[in-house]
Amino acid sequence: MPTPPPPMEPHDALGYLVKHAHLRLTALTDAALAPLGIDSKDFGVLRVLVGRAPMSQQEAAAKLGVDRTTMVALIDAFEARGAVTRRPDPNDRRRNAIELTERGLALYRKADAAYVAAEGRFLAPLDPAVATQLRQALRTVLAPPEGRDRDER
Amino acid sequence: MPTPPPPMEPHDALGYLVKHAHLRLTALTDAALAPLGIDSKDFGVLRVLVGRAPMSQQEAAAKLGVDRTTMVALIDAFEARGAVTRRPDPNDRRRNAIELTERGLALYRKADAAYVAAEGRFLAPLDPAVATQLRQALRTVLAPPEGRDRDER
DNA sequence: TATTGTTATACTCTATAACTATA
DNA sequence: TATAGTTATAGAGTATAACAATA
């Protein structure tokens, strides 16, 4: 007669831990960014654009891992508030060259401060060294397998 | 004149790391469980029920962090394949007492093996000690704040 | 009056398909 | 013929609202 398995706490599953870490962190950063009129997804867009030469919407979408059709509305919102400019790329007029404005850069700076503070609250229960290890472990797990091409998906 | 910020890799953001860790892990575990006819969300249900006394759908839903209306379809599927029984709780006939069958337990055992193997592939790039630290760090971050009630949300 | 399970509905998010303009 | 951006549509997933049975 096989021994019945002991009760498994759902919280033991790595999937549960990672999922709820994501939910918690998103809730924290969304709340921190809300006063600026953006959420954590929008912040990702700013992050991709800041300090870089103008790029096409599709390039930005690839860096974010979203579809190009999803990118349209994201840029729409930033363009409407004067944080991003869209203009046809002179070298290939099918493309939009999107670029952060001064206003967009100022928004990024405020957003970054709010985002970093929210990250800090999320990581507060951990020793700083452990927090660093956590970040590094996630980077390692997500890094492209060694010995193969580094192509983006 | 303020120094322009350097380009930020989106991959530096903790939110990016956690989100994509979740996506990667879910893809791995879903693929590993697919031959059994379940996905990682279904596996969570099995995990909650295994080795425990019969509980109401609402209790199970609370443990999983999903709505009670979402629970209905999850249990429907398991009941249809004879993995879970639903019967009115004699003490409170508003409730369904849901319980794993022998068949459900056998399914859980196979699913657990597949799930653990998928977790292992996810964590493969890490030293075993680092993998343990990662799990522990996530537990710590998600643990209820000390000195307060441990109520579920 | 409140609670459990259920159903129907709505909402969010994102991708797919189709169109346009360029190449 | 292929590609970038756009729009409309559809799908997955999950929550909210309303209802029946029970407490």
What does this structure look like?
Chains A, B: Residues 11-143 form the HTH marR-type domain. Chains A, B: It comes from Actinacidiphila acidipaludis. Chains A, B: This is MarR family transcriptional regulator. Two copies of one chain form a homodimer. In chain A, helix 1 (14-33) crosses helix 5 and helix 3 (57-64) packs across helix 4 (68-80). The N and C termini of chain A lie far apart (48 Å). Chain A has helices at residues 14-33, 40-49, 57-64, 68-80, 102-123, 128-142, and strands at 84-89, 92-100. Chain A is 58% helix and 10% strand. The model of chain A is unreliable at 148-153 (pLDDT under 50). The first copy, chain A, has six helices and two strands; from the N terminus they run ααααββαα. Chain A has a single domain (32-141), classed as Winged helix-like DNA-binding domain superfamily/Winged helix DNA-binding domain (Arc Repressor Mutant, subunit A, Orthogonal Bundle), CATH 1.10.10. The first copy, chain A, has a two-stranded antiparallel ribbon. By secondary structure, the first copy, chain A, is mostly helical. In chain A, a hairpin with a 2-residue loop joins strand 1 and strand 2. Chains A and B meet through helix 1, helix 2, helix 5 and helix 6 of A and helix 1, helix 2, helix 5 and helix 6 of B. The structure holds a DNA duplex (23 and 23 nucleotides).
Compact overview of the structure:
Chain A is mainly alpha-helical and 153 residues long. The first copy, chain A, has 6 helices and 2 strands.
How many beta-strand segments of chain A?
Answer: 2
Extract low-pLDDT stretches of chain A.
148-153
CATH superfamily of chain A: Winged helix-like DNA-binding domain superfamily/Winged helix DNA-binding domain
Q: Biggest chain pair contact, residues each?
A: A-B, 54 and 54 residues
Q: Quick check: average pLDDT of chain A?
A: 91
Oligomer: homodimer
